[in-house]
Amino acid sequence: MFHIAPHLETKRLYLRPFQPGDLDVLAALCANPDVMRYVGHGVRTRKETETGLHRMIAHWQAHGFGMWKLVEKETGAFVGRAGLIHLDSTPEIEVGYVLDCSFWGCGLATEAARVCLQFGFDTLGLERIVAIARPENLASQRVMQKLGMTYEKAASYYNCAVVYWAIAREHCSARHPLTVFPLKLA
Description:
Elements: E1 8-9, E2 13-17, H1 23-30, H2 46-63, E3 67-72, E4 78-86, E5 93-99, H3 108-123, E6 128-133, H4 138-146, E7 150-157, E8 160-168, H5 169-175
Antiparallel strand pairs: 1-2, 2-3, 3-4, 4-5, 6-8, 7-8
């Protein structure tokens, strides 16, 4: 089990552990109403973001998985966050992703989520990973489809109506072989 988030790499992204010094870029992301339109209850204050940042860092220490900071390889730009978390205080593990608007529509959410699934299945030994989205968030649902996830039900999590998708380990490998670049410990 990891107590510090490992570094992962895809073709276009670095997935790095969040640090307390990432507050400025994360606060800007969480203050953007377009980005936060379908996330939780919308925009977050700097203080709320700081609390969330500390929670993300602590999640790794407590559970051996969590959210990564996404950095574009080519430019070093902050892209957003992606990773694995417990679904609304349940034992189920959810893959989640939030990207800055300037990175929408170019496949980076799918690329980041794929390596998160790979980490969950191959490194953590998970048998199943779920994802949720608000019904009107069609872009997020397209990512889930590209990942090979299957719609299972309408549900309510985090006090929101959502659609619930899932994928089992054997379906992920069979439908979408994933390439993971070398795993480096922080």
